[in-house]
Amino acid sequence: MIAKGKNASELFPAVVKNVASKNIEIKKLVYVYLVRYAEEQQDLALLSISTFQRALKDPNQLIRASALRVLSSIRVPIIVPIMMLAIKEASADLSPYVRKNAAHAIQKLYSLDPEQKEMLIEVIEKLLKDKSTLVAGSVVMAFEEVCPDRIDLIHKNYRKLCNLLVDVEEWGQVVIIHMLTRYARTQFVSPWKEEDGLEDDEKNFYDSDDDQKEKTDKRKKSYTMDPDHRLLIRNTKPLLQSRNAAVVMAVAQLYWHISPKSEVGIISKSLVRLLRSNREVQYIVLQNIATMSIQRKGMFEPYLKSFYVRSTDPTMIKTLKLEILTNLANEANISTLLREFQTYVKSQDKEFAAATIQTIGRCATNISEVTDTCLNGLVCLLSNRDEIVVAESVVVIKKLLQMQPAQHGEIIKHMAKLLDSITVPVARASILWLIGENCERVPKIAPDVLRKMAKGFTSEDDLVKLQILNLGAKLYLTNSKQTKLLTQYILNLGKYDQNYDIRDRTRFIRQLIVPNEKSGALSKYAKKIFLAQKPAPLLESPFKDRDHFQLGTLSHTLNTKATGYLELSNWPEVAPDPSVRNVEVIELAKEWTPAGKAKKENPAKKFYSESEEEEDSSDSSSDSDSESGSASGEQEEEGDSSDDSSEDSSSEHKSDSESASEVGNKRTAKRNSKSKRKRDSEDGENENEKSKTSDSSNADSSSIEESSSDSESESESESESESRKVTKEKENKTKQNINPLTKDVSLLDLDDFNPVSTPVALPTPALSPSLIADLEGLNLSTTSSVITKQVRLKTSEEKSRKTSKDYNPHIMVSTPVFVPVKTHVLLHRMSGKGLAAHYFFPRQPCIFGDKMVSVQITLNNTTDRKIENIHIGGKRLPIGMQMHVFNTIESLEPEGSITVSMGIDFCDSTQTASFQLCTKDDCFNVNIQPPVGELLLPVAMSEKDFKKEQGMLTGMNETSTVIIAAPQNFTPSVILQKVVNVANVGVVPSGQDHIHRFAAKTVHSGSLMLVTVELKEGSTAQLIINTEKTVIGSVLLRELKPVLSQG
């Protein structure tokens, strides 16, 4: 019934019952039915959700995939959280088919609820690391739909995608190639050199291989192609032989947009091969060839005969072939082409015949040697029986005669005689225009033509009437004796014409050419105005303007920007750092390393720089084997963080600038930074210990490396011995408590682990006596020794920081400008059986860890009995999120209240932290979701530093919007109050009254968040946010805009 288009929605309840059937074929049919009618019957469709959730756990991968496909196709907003959870689970499925369907579901969920973008990006990032060819195409398509601007997600996977390309299914190949084309245009410098003009390229096509090689060698002296650029071009070349036309077209556009001009020629043969396909494919391919042939004639000249028109071709194909033949025409082949065109003019397809005449005109314009030949041929066509052919010939001849009018008086006379027979308005208007322009060369014919036109003026087309008026004006100025009365008669007819354009033109001409008392100064120059020299028309290809669209796209076909079109960026002047792409190859190699000697060879030894590694090796006399293991460990560490390239560069700078006497200090600082990296990898291991073997190996290798330096301090050896026992829950909890303290009190800068754009130091008051007392009260055995150790290291740490190029002493974390008193309900007293809980954000640095957000929770006992053993139970946190819980509250008296502190590392996202708040008898599920403004710490910086950092965070790192509000809402005090109420930012002093600047850094990564409010004229202002964290920046922009707009 569905296939026949009949309405089967009435059967919905009966069909839904069969969703639980164990017969796979019945299930498939039910799934198809549900996808079709779920939106119409939302309430009933929700009844089957539980069945789909069970099916997602089915041992059969086909059922799991089908359930996910149907679940994501039911476009009911209320089930978005369920869909999100299902996609996350499916993305980690063992079956690549299920993971592929998870990638498809991402796009559906994003179209249903764009607010889920941030969480979907995390799933995309995870799936991009998938090594299955089945998944690659689907996840890249999801990437293009959800976050095409997040090029940083591709860096790690670039080489893997290039190598997998040949084995991916055809649909995926097309998507990946288009994405990699955009990527290449942003990451590599242009391989096109200015001296490589069109003529040089044409020679390359015909030259021998030796000649071409010599030219290529000369170019290489000034330009060297990036190996990754060459990898992409080399790996896509075999796909030119694909049976799929879309794949061949995708590779062709990639070569056109990113390969050296000397190598583009290889795509021509493959494109010509596609002309044997059906007419739809031919149409697209010919359009792209037409665009290419304008710039690169030499590519398609050998295949000239492939573009000859066949009698069976539809009109759209014929006109495109004509266009290409015109582009390829030159002195050598024009005689052949003109003979071909003579045949086309006789075609029964009148539209095609007219297009051929236009083509002949363009050839005559472009090739001066055949101009006369073409003109004579067109004059012969004037005697053709077909009126359309004659009319088109007249129009083209008119354009050709404009180039050399003095030589062709006879042709004009011949065309004047045709006025009696031609009825097409455009042709009649063209003849009249020609006679008017050349009225002095045909003084006897022109007045007679005007007389004939005056007779039938009222019955002519509007276009012809305008040209009759122009002809009369020109003859009045050049031959007033014969035509004065005739012109006045025509002007009188035009004065009362029905068309207002003609009436308007009549009044204008009368005032200009007929002198009277009211005539102004213009009438003196009437002859110069009407008989001025007109520039010859330029006959250009209609495909000339299409080259700014990416070839093979819908926008290129339509010659207008289509929805969803992603423009190709210009080549960068300087290539971005290529080391960001080193990651994926290293990870692939590491995956196949057997768990043995290589993993135990101290992999973190060579992390910072080669110069440091040489100093270390000279002191510790490490052998070559351990050094090679260190190298693999260094590269493995690069795979865990996309920021490591900048770390390496800063550490190299540091090692160069320090003297040999400070080697000991450097080692100490390096061990502390390694300890921090170890904690990060072990946190990831605790989240998913089985599936993330690379993280666990990092943690193991880091702990082994650290344990080799027991002589440094007692506290460090204790924490290292604990890190080797990660499988024991009790010791793991203790380690998690110790590590944040070490990080916080050591005063390690975030800029040791982040790029240049986040040079933000931590607040110095972290070592106040009250804070040390608080830390000692946390019942940690090694706390006091850790504090003593880190205080002792403070001087050496500051020295190493000051030599780093990332360090900026002018940017410091400051105290909050404003702390809102707004509280959020964590647990309502009705849901909590008398226990009520509220939380708020005090906007203070968290004492439990420098990457955590401080949260204060107030617990109230609203019952008449004591509530005992209040504590945090099970935690359901997103991957990477950490939480430091408060100590167990033994009892809370009736009507009593207590405030406790927690620390949550939200990983710079607004994801919800879900956990259980438990008492002696019950457990309650609660959630904490941070406003984006609470993920920031205020930063104090000068206006000069602000502008410098803002200049480094432009392009994709900048978002802006226009705000409209009453002028009284744009006073400095009002703007300050509104901004700091939404976000925990610091005020930057500004030397301009109309610009207000605020600065902060993200708590987790330390990325700068720069906010600018620039007042414009009237009641508008521009809000600009610059940050590397584009997702947080856009969310903050959405929250600030309505606040600043309202009164």
TrEMBL record:
Residues 200-211, 610-626, 634-649, 707-720 have a biased composition (Acidic residues). Subunit of non-clathrin- and clathrin-associated adaptor protein complex 3 (AP-3) that plays a role in protein sorting in the late-Golgi/trans-Golgi network (TGN) and/or endosomes. The AP complexes mediate both the recruitment of clathrin to membranes and the recognition of sorting signals within the cytosolic tails of transmembrane cargo molecules. AP-3 appears to be involved in the sorting of a subset of transmembrane proteins targeted to lysosomes and lysosome-related organelles. Pfam families: Adaptin_N, AP3B1_C, AP3B1_C_2, SEEEED. Residues 200-222, 596-738 are annotated as: Disordered. It is found in: Cytoplasmic vesicle, Clathrin-coated vesicle membrane; Golgi apparatus. Residues 740-911 form the AP-3 complex subunit beta C-terminal domain. Belongs to the adaptor complexes large subunit family. The lineage of its organism: Eukaryota, Metazoa, Chordata, Craniata, Vertebrata. Residues 935-1045 form the Beta-adaptin appendage C-terminal subdomain domain. The keyword Magnesium does not apply. Residues 667-678 have a biased composition (Basic residues). This is AP-3 complex subunit beta. Residues 598-609, 721-734 have a biased composition (Basic and acidic residues). It comes from Acinonyx jubatus. Residues 694-706 have a biased composition (Low complexity).
